[in-house]
Amino acid sequence: MTEHSLWRFSRALHRAINDRHFEDIETLIDEDVEWAIYGPIDMFPFLGARQGKAAVLQVIRQLADNFRVRRFERESIMLGVDSASSMLRYSLTALDSDKPISLRVAQFAQFRADRLINMRVLVDTFDLVEQALGRAIHLPRMTSVG
After folding, report:
1. Over the stretch 2-23, which tens digit does the pLDDT of each residue have?
2. HEC string for the chain
3. What's the number of CA atoms in the CB half-sphere (13 Å) around residue 43?
4. 20 to 30 A Cα–Cα from 62, which one of 26, 41, 76, 94?
5. Is the pLDDT of residue 133 over 70?
6. pLDDT of residue 40
7. CB atoms near residue 74 (< 10 Å)
């Protein structure tokens, strides 16, 4: 059995972010890729939807400009022939402040001929925003107990 496309993509993505080695990731992304990272775009402009290889590579460069991956853990994973979904915990370092950031993401990927054609990532944004602000966010109580 050959190695699943997710493993190659994951290794190449982390090399691109941590080592600014983009050549391997470029070969694993389809020209017409659809990409979306759902999160607070106002705070993190590299989040959001992108179409096409050039736009996705720009996002990966922006991630590399802002963060270093210290550690990640796969909590769960499901692999299909040309698809993968996983729950991940990341420990990052913000490069501008050397501040640690931990976040949890759900990732859904589709591949064709070993190239990424679709990526959707859902970020635990509430926790991420609190860490970025450096303080807890207190929301009004939405229901009454009675």
Report:
1. 799 999 999 999 999 999 999 9
2. CCCCHHHHHHHHHHHHHHHCCCHHHHHCEEEEEEEEEECCCCCCCCCEEEECHHHHHHHHHHHHHHEEEEEEEEEEEEECCCEEEEEEEEEEEECCCCEEEEEEEEEEEEEECCEEEEEEEEECHHHHHHHHHCCCCCCCCCCCCC
3. 11
4. 76
5. no
6. 82
7. 11
